[in-house]
Amino acid sequence: MFVAPAFAQELETEADQNGHTEVGVEHGSTGVFPPFDSSTYPSQLLWLAITFGLFYLFLKKVVLPRIGGILEVRSDRIAQDLDQAARLKEESDAALAAYEQELADAKAKAGAIGQEARDVAKAEADAERKKVEASLESRLSEAEARIALIKDAAMRDVSQIAEETTGLIVQELLGSKTDKAAVSAAVKAVRG
Amino acid sequence: MADDPITQFQISKLVPIEIGGLDFSFTNSSLFMVATVATASAFLYLTTSSRGLVPSRLQSVSEMSYEFVANMLRDAAGTAGMKFFPLVFSLFTFVLVANMFGMFPYFFTVTSQIIVTFALALLVIGTVLVYGFWKHGFKFLKLFVPSGVPAAVLPMVVIIEIISFLSRPISLSVRLFANMLAGHITLKVFAGFIVSLSSLGAIGIGGAILPLIMTIAITALEFLVSFLQAYVFAVLACMYLNDAVHPGH
After folding, report:
1. Residue of B nearest to A7 (CA)
2. Which residues does chain A have within 8 Å of residue B90's beta carbon, measured at their own beta carbons?
3. Which residue among A100, B21, B64, B146 is least packed, with the fewest CB closer than 10 Å?
4. Residue A57 Cα, gap to closest chain B Cα (Å)
5. Yes or no, beta carbons of B11 and A37 under 8 Å apart
6. What are B58-103's pLDDT values in tens digits?
């Protein structure tokens, strides 16, 4: 059996009942369309008032303040955390700046120390070089003096040797003793 | 007849109670109101009980619905409207959970009862009226007199404004009621086709695939409608409450 014809029939009987009288009892209590059955209204209104009223009070007194509180605490907490994050960022920025400042200082100081050390080393090296040069100079002049001395001595020896040699050669050739003074004069004359 | 599409809206007494000649029985409707309220309360209460700074998934759901409704109300009625936040949040949650409960097979849909939706709509309009007159006195009536309208057509406009104001509770309640009612009837009818057709043998079973596909599609649509109608109800409530806070247009 189809429902649709049955439904149509149902509606017809309902229309009949609504049109004529409310006596006919087909289904339920009175046979009118249930939502329009005014005999159920007092009960529905009463129970709606009770249930909805309690619901309203419960939400108003308990649930909504609680959810509102949760949301407020959360937004407070988020704001607080954001503040703290900003503060920490500031601190870290300051620390970074201080670190960089310190680093720059240290670099400058290291440069200065290096420069100073270089200067000192250079000055020392210069002094050392000067000392060595001076000592070399003095030894050189000393050596030159000695050479001159030796040369003089050697020159003096040369004339003596020449005189002696000349004396000996003359003695051998002439077979007589030579006048020392004459030889020496001769040698001097030759040497010029 | 168990499977006609109207039976699902039938109200049956579970605990008969009668006071002063009026029937205040605890019915299946009452049961599902209790279930709706209990489920929504328990969910909201338990998921937020740990008060996690980092929310769990379920706690996020509660928080998101809180902020969703709060933004909705703030956009419509401004910061001054936030005093109605518990009301709007309760309405939205109640309607949403009731609608979603209705999507379970064999469950009763509280919001498919016109008296329930009408009562909720009246609650909104009543709040607007009471708060509006309490806060603004007779200046609240400026609500019906838009500024900048020529005096000649003013009476006409005022009449239209009054009619539109009076029709608000009706449109607000009928919109929700009709959507839920029509959706559930459609679902039931199409699902009924499947049963009827498949009892006709092989060809019938083949033909029953069409209403089956329709039923699946309409089920998805109904979930959307359930949420959307709760949202629409809450948004309109916000806009009406805005009138109570700022009566001048």
Report:
1. B4
2. 52, 55-56, 59-60
3. B21
4. 9
5. yes
6. 999 999 999 999 999 999 998 988 999 999 999 999 999 999 999 9
**What is the residue range of A177's domain?**
150-191
Place of tokens 């109605």: B84
A160 in a domain, yes or no?
A: yes
Identify whether A14 is part of a domain: no
Around Cβ A41, how many Cβ atoms within 10 Å?
18
SS (H, E, C) chain B: CCCCCCHHHCCCEEECCEECCEECCEEHHHHHHHHHHHHHHHHHHHHCCCCCCCCCHHHHHHHHHHHHHHHHHHHHHCHHHHHHHHHHHHHHHHHHHHHHHHCCCCCCCHHHCHHHHHHHHHHHHHHHHHHHHHHHHHHHHHHHCCCCCCCCCHHHHHHHHHHHHHHHHHHHHHHHHHHHHHHHHHHHHHHHHHHHHHCCCHHHHHHCHHHHHHHHHHHHHHHHHHHHHHHHHHHHHHHHHHHHHCCCC
Does any domain span residue A187? yes
Q: From CA B25, how far away is CA B176, in angstroms rounded?
A: 25
| A40-84 confidence digits (pLDDT tens) | 888 999 999 999 999 999 999 999 999 999 999 999 999 999 999
Task: Give the count of domains, chain A.
Answer: 1
Task: Look at residue A165 and tell me if it is in a domain.
Answer: yes
Q: Which residue of B has its CA nearest to A9?
A: B4
ipTM summary value: 0.89
How near does any CA of chain A get to the CA of B37, in Å?
6
pLDDT in tens, A129-163: 999 999 999 999 999 999 999 988 888 888 788 88
CB contact under 8 A, B119 and A45: yes
With contacts defined as CB-CB under 8 Å, which chain B residues touch A54? 37
Q: Which residues from A are below 8 Å from B114, CB to CB?
A: 35-36
Q: Which of B6, B27, B36 is nearest residue A40 as measured by Cβ atoms?
A: B27
| Chain B residue with the nearest C-alpha to that of A46 | B24
